[in-house]
Design goal:
By secondary structure, this protein is an alpha/beta fold. The chain has a single domain, classed as Spore Coat Polysaccharide Biosynthesis Protein SpsA, Chain A (Alpha-Beta Complex). The chain is built from six helices and eight strands. Strands 7-4-1-8 form a four-stranded parallel β-sheet, with helices on both faces. Strands 2-3 form a two-stranded antiparallel ribbon. A two-stranded antiparallel sheet has the order 5-6.
Protein backbone atom coordinates (compact mmCIF):
# COMPACT_ATOMS: atom_id res chain seq x y z
CA UNK A 1 0.00 0.00 0.00
CA UNK A 2 1.29 3.43 -0.93
CA UNK A 3 1.66 6.39 1.39
CA UNK A 4 0.88 9.85 0.00
CA UNK A 5 2.61 12.77 1.70
CA UNK A 6 1.51 16.35 1.11
CA UNK A 7 4.71 18.41 0.97
CA UNK A 8 3.79 21.36 -1.21
CA UNK A 9 2.60 24.10 1.12
CA UNK A 10 4.37 27.38 1.79
CA UNK A 11 5.02 26.73 5.48
CA UNK A 12 4.38 30.38 6.35
CA UNK A 13 4.24 29.82 10.12
CA UNK A 14 7.90 28.77 10.05
CA UNK A 15 9.05 31.45 7.62
CA UNK A 16 12.47 31.77 9.30
CA UNK A 17 13.21 28.19 8.19
CA UNK A 18 11.05 27.88 5.10
CA UNK A 19 12.69 30.79 3.31
CA UNK A 20 15.35 28.31 2.17
CA UNK A 21 13.70 24.87 2.40
CA UNK A 22 10.12 23.57 2.33
CA UNK A 23 8.66 22.72 5.74
CA UNK A 24 9.01 18.91 5.31
CA UNK A 25 12.77 19.43 4.82
CA UNK A 26 13.32 21.28 8.11
CA UNK A 27 15.72 19.13 10.09
CA UNK A 28 15.06 17.46 13.41
CA UNK A 29 18.11 15.69 14.79
CA UNK A 30 20.01 16.16 11.53
CA UNK A 31 17.31 14.61 9.31
CA UNK A 32 14.35 16.23 7.51
CA UNK A 33 10.85 15.94 8.98
CA UNK A 34 9.92 14.09 5.78
CA UNK A 35 12.53 11.39 6.50
CA UNK A 36 11.16 10.91 10.02
CA UNK A 37 7.63 10.45 8.67
CA UNK A 38 8.85 7.91 6.13
CA UNK A 39 10.80 6.00 8.80
CA UNK A 40 7.64 5.77 10.93
CA UNK A 41 5.74 4.20 8.03
CA UNK A 42 8.67 2.02 6.92
CA UNK A 43 9.11 0.62 10.45
CA UNK A 44 5.56 -0.68 10.12
CA UNK A 45 6.00 -2.17 6.66
CA UNK A 46 5.02 0.70 4.36
CA UNK A 47 7.94 1.63 2.09
CA UNK A 48 6.35 3.09 -1.04
CA UNK A 49 5.72 6.83 -1.01
CA UNK A 50 4.25 9.47 -3.28
CA UNK A 51 5.34 12.95 -2.27
CA UNK A 52 3.21 15.85 -3.52
CA UNK A 53 5.75 18.60 -4.07
CA UNK A 54 5.06 22.28 -4.56
CA UNK A 55 6.91 25.10 -2.81
CA UNK A 56 10.67 24.49 -3.20
CA UNK A 57 9.96 20.97 -4.45
CA UNK A 58 13.38 20.96 -6.09
CA UNK A 59 14.93 20.75 -2.60
CA UNK A 60 12.98 17.54 -1.91
CA UNK A 61 13.90 16.11 -5.32
CA UNK A 62 17.60 16.89 -4.83
CA UNK A 63 17.54 15.29 -1.38
CA UNK A 64 16.25 12.00 -2.78
CA UNK A 65 18.39 12.11 -5.92
CA UNK A 66 21.46 12.33 -3.67
CA UNK A 67 20.07 10.10 -0.90
CA UNK A 68 22.17 7.07 -1.79
CA UNK A 69 25.46 8.98 -1.89
CA UNK A 70 24.69 11.01 1.22
CA UNK A 71 24.08 7.85 3.23
CA UNK A 72 27.25 6.02 2.21
CA UNK A 73 31.00 6.36 2.44
CA UNK A 74 32.41 7.34 -0.94
CA UNK A 75 35.75 7.79 -2.65
CA UNK A 76 35.90 10.42 -5.38
CA UNK A 77 38.77 10.13 -7.84
CA UNK A 78 38.96 13.58 -9.36
CA UNK A 79 41.54 12.60 -11.99
CA UNK A 80 39.46 9.77 -13.46
CA UNK A 81 36.12 11.43 -12.68
CA UNK A 82 34.88 8.34 -10.88
CA UNK A 83 33.08 7.62 -7.65
CA UNK A 84 33.31 4.45 -5.61
CA UNK A 85 30.54 3.83 -3.09
CA UNK A 86 31.40 1.97 0.12
CA UNK A 87 29.28 0.77 3.04
CA UNK A 88 25.88 1.87 1.85
CA UNK A 89 23.52 2.66 4.71
CA UNK A 90 20.31 3.14 2.80
CA UNK A 91 16.63 2.81 3.56
CA UNK A 92 14.21 0.65 1.58
CA UNK A 93 12.17 3.57 0.29
CA UNK A 94 10.57 3.81 -3.13
CA UNK A 95 9.70 7.47 -3.60
CA UNK A 96 7.68 9.04 -6.40
CA UNK A 97 8.10 12.81 -6.37
CA UNK A 98 5.34 14.72 -8.17
CA UNK A 99 5.28 18.45 -8.84
CA UNK A 100 1.70 19.26 -7.90
CA UNK A 101 2.02 23.03 -8.28
CA UNK A 102 2.88 25.98 -6.11
CA UNK A 103 -0.65 27.16 -5.33
CA UNK A 104 -2.64 23.94 -5.76
CA UNK A 105 -5.11 23.19 -2.98
CA UNK A 106 -5.21 19.89 -1.09
CA UNK A 107 -7.82 18.20 -3.30
CA UNK A 108 -6.03 19.42 -6.41
CA UNK A 109 -2.75 17.86 -5.23
CA UNK A 110 -4.51 14.55 -4.69
CA UNK A 111 -6.07 14.73 -8.16
CA UNK A 112 -2.65 15.36 -9.73
CA UNK A 113 -1.19 12.14 -8.27
CA UNK A 114 -4.21 9.95 -9.06
CA UNK A 115 -2.34 8.11 -11.85
CA UNK A 116 0.25 6.87 -9.30
CA UNK A 117 -2.33 5.39 -6.91
CA UNK A 118 -3.68 1.88 -7.40
CA UNK A 119 -6.36 1.19 -4.81
CA UNK A 120 -6.33 1.95 -1.11
CA UNK A 121 -3.63 4.33 0.07
CA UNK A 122 -2.66 6.24 3.19
CA UNK A 123 -2.25 10.00 3.32
CA UNK A 124 -0.49 12.37 5.69
CA UNK A 125 0.94 15.85 5.77
CA UNK A 126 4.66 16.56 5.44
CA UNK A 127 4.86 17.84 9.00
CA UNK A 128 2.83 15.05 10.64
CA UNK A 129 5.41 13.38 12.88
CA UNK A 130 3.76 11.13 15.43
CA UNK A 131 4.03 7.80 17.19
CA UNK A 132 1.06 5.89 15.83
CA UNK A 133 0.21 2.24 15.29
CA UNK A 134 -0.51 2.45 11.57
CA UNK A 135 -1.83 -1.13 11.08
CA UNK A 136 -4.24 -0.54 13.98
CA UNK A 137 -5.36 2.76 12.44
CA UNK A 138 -5.84 1.09 9.05
CA UNK A 139 -7.84 -1.73 10.63
CA UNK A 140 -10.07 0.83 12.39
CA UNK A 141 -10.61 2.62 9.08
CA UNK A 142 -11.55 -0.61 7.28
CA UNK A 143 -14.04 -1.54 10.00
CA UNK A 144 -15.69 1.89 9.93
CA UNK A 145 -15.79 2.33 6.14
CA UNK A 146 -19.22 1.91 4.61
CA UNK A 147 -19.46 -0.73 1.94
CA UNK A 148 -20.45 0.55 -1.48
CA UNK A 149 -23.70 -0.66 -3.00
Amino acid sequence: MKVVIFAGGLGTRLMEETATVPKPMIEIGGKPILWHIMKIYAAQGYNEFIVCCGYKGNVIKEYFLNYHLNNADITVDIESNSVKVHDVNSDRFKVTLVDTGLTTNTAGRLKKIKKYIDGTFMLTYGDGVSDIDIPKLLDFHKKKTKKSL
